[in-house]
Design a protein that fits this description.
Blueprint (H helix, E strand, L loop, with lengths): L10 E5 L3 E5 L1 E7 L3 E6 L2 E16 L4 E14 L3 H5 L3 H5 L2
């Protein structure tokens, strides 16, 4: 019987816009040095910034630490991939 760890706690801690720690992360869908898209127990989270990179990734407990300049953090309702693609540019070029 496989055991799956499910964390029900979710927290976000930003330190001087230079680093961010998030708990309750289920998976990281995509990331680069300007944007991270993560599925958390509270929904999809998008973090935007500059020179972003993963400092710590604990998939067992669902903890992620990122460093770089944090410009924004937002939650996306529904499936994150679909809503992410419905931004300003996709609306302009329909």
């Amino acid at each position: 019987m496989d055991k799956e760890i499910i964390t029900s706690n979710h927290s976000v801690s930003i330190n001087e816009r230079k680093s961010i720690s998030i708990t309750g992360v289920k998976k990281i869908d995509s990331f680069d040095n300007e944007e991270f898209l993560m599925d958390t127990v509270m929904g999809y989270v998008v973090i935007k910034g500059e020179d972003l990179e993963i400092v710590k990734l604990d998939t067992f407990q669902g903890n992620v630490s990122i460093k770089g300049k944090i410009n924004s953090l937002s939650y996306i309702e529904g499936s994150g991939k679909k809503n992410k693609d419905s931004g300003v540019f996709s609306k302009l070029f329909k």
